[in-house]
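so the lab meeting is tmrw and i was supposed to have these ready like two days ago... anyway. pasting both below. for each one the top line is the aa sequence and the line under it is the structure tokens. i havent really looked at them closely yet so no promises
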Amino acid sequence: MAQIHPTATVDAKAELADDAVIGPQCVIDGPAVVGPECRLIGSVYLSGKVTLGRCNVVYPFVTIGFEPQDRKYDASMPSAGVAVGDNNMIREGVTIHRASDPDAPTRIGNDNFLMCNSHLGHDVQVGNHCTLANSALLGGHCTMADQVNIGGNSAAHQFCRIGRLGMLGGHSALVNDLPPFVLASGFNQAISLNVVGLRRSGVAPATIDSLKSAFDILYLSQHTRPIAIERIGQLIKESTNGTELLCEFKQFLESINDRGLVPHISTQQKHKLTR
């Protein structure tokens, strides 16, 4: 039987694993599922349809599953809620809002680290092995692929996508899509390839060099995006290193949505000088 502190309030519709720990002053309001080896340390509030997988640790003052911060949201409509995977560390004050979609939940994958006061808006999709530093914010419908890092006090606009091993530096803002393997900083500025992140992930130097070439084609060669995609495709044909990652980079560029592509810092500076 789950270990439930006497001061906790647990809805009769909730499902708790036998070894789950529900600490003092926690509230589980609704048909939540708390999986094996999960620990709600204290003063955690789960609202509505929330599913926690295995081995998640949730620190005090975290709220998961409350209504979206969206003026158009109709609370009477069904929601798919929030689905959290396994082995996530969710630190103090994190807020994760339920989906506005009745079919697809706000989703957090596995092995993520959400630091104090970070926020995931409604319908956000987070992959695996991601880190959101203190007070990092993802607007509604944002998508983060695996191994993404978001610096402290940084924010991504609604509907933005961040590719795998992308990084947004601290005190930064993102309003366009950030390709995989790219570092952005400041106000919506692509700075360089995320070389440190690639090295730490075990990517071979020769592959990093190939990705640098792709980055240069996209951002430094003054091509339009369709021409850049064509040139990167040619690079893939000619390359003997890192073709899988080059293909991932190219495919992301081909799928840019209405939010557009984050510009390079030099592009923004040139625009300021010529307008």
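ok protien two:
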Amino acid sequence: MTATRRQALALAAAAAGTTALTAAGPALAARQLGSPVKTLFWTAMITPCDRDLRFDPGAFREVMAWYRSQGADGVVVLGTTGEFPSFSMAERKLIAETALKDKLGLNVIVGPGTPNLPETLELSRHAADHGADGLLVIPPFYYNNPRTEALTRYYSMLFDKVSIPINLYHIPGTSEVPISIPLLRNLMGYPNLAGIKDSTGNKEGYAEFVREFPELNMRTGTGSNLEHALDHGMGAILAEGNVFTRLCADVFAAYRAGRDYHAPLERMRAAERMMRQAGTGIDDYGSMKYAVGLEMGRPQTFQRPPNPDITDAQKQAIRETLARIKDLP
């Protein structure tokens, strides 16, 4: 057993209770890998680019620090919100290194997924070697709906080579390759299977994931399933954590303090409704990055095509809506 694995198991034991975990055995301890506790809030982090659409490491560091100051527990780097398919292999390594050079006390999960195993494995090893707390691995996209046995083989070849915590990314609306209950069952023999991110927003499907795998961290990727996640001790990876970092963090702070989290959750949702109803295009990465810059008081950063540019009308709507959100009770 390597020192890294021993440290991870020790961290898990401290989080869940050394005596209980010792009695349950090391396999259960390993299920807690990658975070001190399960019910944490990760921001699905943007990847700032300059006006010439080059990755901006300085802006990236500032944004990471901002999330931390606003109460985020962690970040997912190079997820969907991070525009991972828009960057080359070399750029993705640089982005991961920028995040992992100093994690600022954040739990950092890296997305290494590609349509092929060699590059996914290369990016996974790179993230592990640079100190990532875990991986979020999208299925190999392009070949739609592969058989469970074939997808099991793909992930098994990754698990056989990478020992840090691995989360499977369930976003079939984009990948066209769902993460299924049978697939997860096939992979349960790997102690570093940490959980999933479910970005579907499907309430019944998410509830089934949680019911079938309570020992994993079945993170919701949508605010619509946040109550179910919290009520069952699961975490969340939220794109809305970019603009509404503090509002999201307040929900988790209330939960962990044993207070009623529903009031801060309604404030978070009210802010989201206001932003969407104002026609801000806030779900587009250009608008999201503009809003983050306004909140931070720093210059605008940019997104790569084919994601659209923000319009002047959207900029005005974002400015006005952010001002109104500050007056929410």
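from a quick look at the 2nd one: The radius of gyration is 19 Å. Residues 1-28 have pLDDT under 50 and may be disordered. will dig more after coffe
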